[in-house]
Amino acid sequence: xxxxxxxxxxxxxxxxxxxxxxxxxxxxIQNPIQVVTxxxxxxxxLEGNGKFSDRLEFPVPHxxxxxxxxxxxxxxxxxxxxxxxxSLKTLVIIILTTSRxxxxxxxxxxxxxNAYLVKPPGAPQLVExxxxxxxxxxxxxxxxxxxxxxKS
Amino acid sequence: MxxxxxxxxxxxVRAPTGGDSLNAAALIERAGFKAExxxxxxxxxxxxxxxxxxxxxxxxxxxxxxxxxxxxxLKTQPSWSDVPIIVVTSGGETTQASLRAFNAFGxxxxxxxxxxxxxxxxxxxxxxxxxxxxxxxxxxRELMNNLENRVxxxxxxxxxxxxxxxxxxxxxxxxxxAPLRAMQGYSHFLMEDYGNRLDETGRDFLTRIINSGNxxxxxxxxxxxxxxxxxxxxxxxxxxxxxLVEEIVQHYPSLQPPQAEIKVQTPLVPVLGHDxxxxxxxxxxxxxxxxFMPPDRIPRIKVWTDNIGPEVRVWFHDNGIGIDPAHQNxxxxxxxxxxxxxxxxxxxxGLAIVHKAVERMGGKVGVDSVPGKGSKFWIQLPKA
Lengths: 152, 384
Hints:
- The complex is a heterodimer of chains A (about 150) and B (about 375).
- In chain A, strands 2-1-3-4-5 form a five-stranded parallel β-sheet.
- With about 150 residues, chain A is of the alpha/beta class.
- Chain A has helices spanning about 15-25, 40-45, 75-85, 100-110, 125-140, 145-150, and strands at about 5-10, 35, 65, 90-95, 115-120.
- Chain B is built from nine helices and twelve strands.
């Protein structure tokens, strides 16, 4: 019954997962956070394949935080794939990466990323970023109706 | 090996009467050369395009409407080529016609005169000299082609190496950051969660670890920024400098009162540049300007533009510690910092980034400074 919107974190670096979870706690984000650690797993999760088929345990996310440098399938690939799926066209996908490369940024927006964030250097800055992220995407932002349909 | 084709060994013959041409051609063929008769100067020009060893022309043929075209053909030869011309003159007294023919080629014309009546052996030996010289030209052509190919090949290999190196330095810097960020994060959490269980010395050590981590991270980030400016294409557009400076000042509290006073002498002349690169340059220069200050002084920076011909020089004049002239040339290089600036925080890459970015936009950068009296940094870009 809880309508807490799920956040899917696609991140292969265990330290970054730890930092992100801690920053989310500091920012008082109460939404459930699911973590997958490579590109293929991200696609499997979004498709509801295999172990992810139980949508009660693994709900369709409202927001995806997607790293770019990932094992198996890179973030850009996941993004491009998602935008080709009718049910995932309007999913909020935010790139969260260490890369500030022009080509990475350009490609991410070309493929339909909703935002592009660069992992900040320190923990306090990460908390600031996550707070801003919460305020904008979870509090102020209205999600596309399709996203809620996809919940079923 | 001269690499000459059969056509390139032939002698093109142009005489005013068909009989003369036939005679000359027969003589040339008998001597073992290849001859081809041209009906007009124009036809000779056309034939020459297909390759020619030497031209044999009688002075009477060097008149008329097609002469300028003929001269043009000679002038527009490739750099290796200077086709030998043998002009058959009327002989005896130097006639007006001979003079005119001779003068038409100018002082650097590659011509030899053979006077009528000539002995066959005279013409053959002259042709022999001409064709020999021509073969030398073909050898030069061959050498030039080889050289060009070699240069192109080596340039390609060099470019490949450079881009490999750049990609390498990028991925190294990138991979360096991951463990570094982990160290920064955990040392921060250690302080946050366990700081009160450490004594003063313990906390001091931890603070030093955190500060060093931050410094190393800035260093790696600056190297990444620098390497970004060495790669990839940038697009040049007109830029509203006034707006760009204003936005940068608004973005950094350290550039605003009471921490600093930045006075922009409007109007700033618009320039041609790349928005992201120029923003990086101006913010690096402004943050340097406020950074290198004696402790008790409020930074005052003046920004203005001067027209210098088709270019604009943008000035950043600060009231900081200044730079010894001995170091002024070095500070734009990677990792170079003026020695007394060691007490100031910085990576020594900021100005190298400015230098690289301005260079990529086709501009220049420089500094005028007197120690103790502030510095005047400038960047110069084309006017918008």
